[in-house]
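Researcher: We're teaching a course module on how sequence relates to structure. For the next exercise, students receive a sequence and then see the predicted structure as tokens, so they can try to spot secondary structure elements on their own. Here is the exercise chain.
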Amino acid sequence: MQFQKLENSYIVFVEKGEKVIETLTNFCIHNNIKSAQLSGIGAVKNVDIGAYDIDSKDYIHRIFDEILELLSFQGNVALKDGVPFIHAHITLGTHSMEVFGGHLFEMEIAAVGEFIIHDFKDETFRKHNEEIGLATLSLCKFEGEDNDK
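Model: And here is the predicted structure for the students to work with:
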């Protein structure tokens, strides 16, 4: 992994063979990043993605071993149990130009992985939401007059 710091952001090059979520999480821990926005592109393989089933409160997993284009990686960083946690969704493309995506669990870089982390220089937290069954962002709740509209 290589990186360059630019003001409150980092350009991160995740290298061939490195696991993306593991590498970016360790980067956040090492650089004390507790609240951030992430984006990225590249070429990946061994991709574990899913979709959340609200009724069963569990993820449907699919694993793709082939090399795929990482067309879009969008996510955020927040503290979960005191540790930076990355929540990301991705869009992937095949060599026949088919596109699909989902919630990212992990993937490995097949050629290059280019990511941007914008550090908000603050703390954001996740806590378990019983109704949804996931650790969701725990933010200030808006209690304004027009809240019901």
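Model: If you want an answer key for the exercise: Helices lie at 20-30. The mean pLDDT is 95.
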